[in-house]
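Work Package 3 (structural annotation) set out to generate three-dimensional models for the target panel prioritized at the project kickoff. During this period the team completed the workflow that converts sequence records into discrete structure tokens, so that structures can be stored uniformly alongside our sequence database. As a representative example, we reproduce one entry of 475 residues exactly as it appears in the project archive.
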Amino acid sequence: MMFLALGGAKAQTLSLDSCRSMALSNNKQLLISQQEIEKAGYTHKAAKTNYLPKLSATGAYVRNSRETHLLKGSTRSALNNLGGELAAPMSQAIQLISQTNPQLAAALSQYGTEVASGFNEVGTHINNAFRTDTRNIFAGALTLTQPLYMGGKIRAYDLITDYARQVAEEQDRGTRQDVILAVDEAYWRVVSLVNKQKLAESYVKLLAHLDSDMQKMIKEGMATRANGLTVSVRLNEAQMALTKADDGLALSRMALCQICGMPLDSRFTLADEERRNLSDVKSDPTFDITQAYVNRPELRSLDLATRIYDQKVQIARSEFLPQVALTGNYLISNPSVYNGFEKKFKGLFNVGVMVSAPLFEWGENRYKIRAAKADAAIARYELSDAKEKVELQVNQQSFRVKEAAKTLTRARTNVARADENLKTAEVGFKAGVIPTSDLLQAQTAWLSAHSDVIDAEIDVRMTQIYLQKSLGILE
């Protein structure tokens, strides 16, 4: 809801609830805290996924500068010349045969050449069969991992992120209460200044009327010029006070506009500006201190912090415990080795269980556990200290409510007396039995009494709000 200050436009009337609503919908810190809640919620959801199996894929390509050989170089050379190795003893036999049977030797020589060539081919084929061709390697893997037991770590992270989400919600609630408190302070400040502005205007009218009467009395010789100057000076002071009241009211309206998210030049009136009695007297406020322990966002956040640190102790302790996970893999490579070395993509499945347990780490985990326990103890001490301070704050605010009620009662009594005193002084002044100084004093007392009752009424209202804030029930 936005209100623009247009010429001649009728001023809008705003209630305290409407101001609160606008401020809550436009406050940037609240928008930030809501994003923090959303962020914490996603973090908690991410932690819960640790209970579930995870599937990952890996791919790789490697270019090697040299090929891996399963046979030595001499063995590869011997296989390539296998026929020549066999041809040497055969040729000696053929030479002996040629001495007795040249024809048979010639036939055997031709056959030996063919046999040697065949064995060379066989040796080359065997040599090629042992080649790996590993200069270009392609590999891939699909891995499925299911945690079975992580020493309580997964459960601890689940709880920590859930507590962190609740902390974000409590901080958001605390921010809402701060915004409401700021709105109420600005709202009642404007109401107070509006009433003080009216009071200042009434005081100026009183002095202006007295100054007019005094000028007439001076002309008739019934008063001295000194008396007239005294009244004129007091009138000037009252006009200056009225100007300050106007300026303060304008600035306070701007502050309320800023809190509510309205343009600073918005025209509006507040629903409580015309109320005659701004607050009812409540002399005996009732409260339950346990209500503050339950409702205060700060205490709830500290309580959640102690739970978070307790879970961090569990995380540190889990490092002492074994961790068990079920794994499943599908591996693929090229060249493949499942049927010799083949330039084909082939793979296999496997399933297994992994167990990891610390054996010796020089006491590192033990020190971590002790540090985590110290943090948890610090959080508990902070919570206990905060509860003591909250108890003191609630009792102080309750005392201030009672004192504000007493002050308001006295202020209203003083107003009645000041009104009667002013009437008596005015009658006496007109009758000539009361000097000007006594009338001015009566007018000053009247102004002070009415100003005090405005402050007392606002103070009653604000102390009740502060008590609600200290109890954590300001909504």
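The longest strand covers residues 136-149.
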